[in-house]
Amino acid sequence: MDERLPAHLEISGLIRAVQAEGGFATVLSKGERDAGTLMIICCENGTKLRAYERMPQLDGTRDWALSKAQDTDNPTDFTDFLERRRRQDSDLWILELDIANAERFIGIVHCNN
């Protein structure tokens, strides 16, 4: 039995959590309602874009991993990456979280040194 939360519920929960903290969250692309794949775009004031996807681990779990970070010297590269992923996976949800330290909403902790 698959214990995975339906994609639309996970997306809804992330949007509400970010908004409750004063941030902005928006769905850039809707995927399959229940079993869709999730990509989370983390940013701060629309800059420093980072794309995270769940990747299978050796132990069978699926952890968030950085798939792409925005290259400020080539800003269209990030958009091109999103378009390629959308074409590769029609079930893909893309959700943008625009809030400081957005990774905390998907359980990734960063140390600012």
What does this structure look like?
The longest helix has 14 residues, at 7-20. The chain is of the alpha+beta class and 113 residues long. It has helices at residues 7-20, 76-88, and strands at residues 24-29, 37-44, 47-56, 62-69, 92-98. Strands 1-5-2-3-4 form a five-stranded mixed β-sheet, with helices on both faces. The protein is built from two helices and five strands; from the N terminus they run αββββαβ. The chain has one domain (7-106): Protein of unknown function (DUF1491) (hypothetical protein tt1805).
Task: Kindly list the characteristics that best describe this protein.
113 residues, hypothetical protein tt1805, 2 helices
Instruction: List how many beta strands DSSP finds.
Output: 5
Oligomerization: single chain
Number of domains: 1
N-to-C order of helices and strands: HEEEEHE
Assigned CATH architecture: 3-Layer(aba) Sandwich
The CA-CA distance between the termini, in Å, is 42 Å
The neighbouring-strand order within the major sheet is 1-5-2-3-4
Average predicted confidence as pLDDT: 90
User: What is the name of the CATH topology?
Assistant: hypothetical protein tt1805
Shape: globular
Pairing-aware structural class of the strands and helices?
alpha+beta
Q: Describe the biggest sheet?
A: 5 strands, mixed
Task: Briefly characterize the structure.
With 113 residues, this protein is α+β, with helices and mostly antiparallel strands. It has helices spanning 7-20, 76-88; strands spanning 24-29, 37-44, 47-56, 62-69, 92-98.
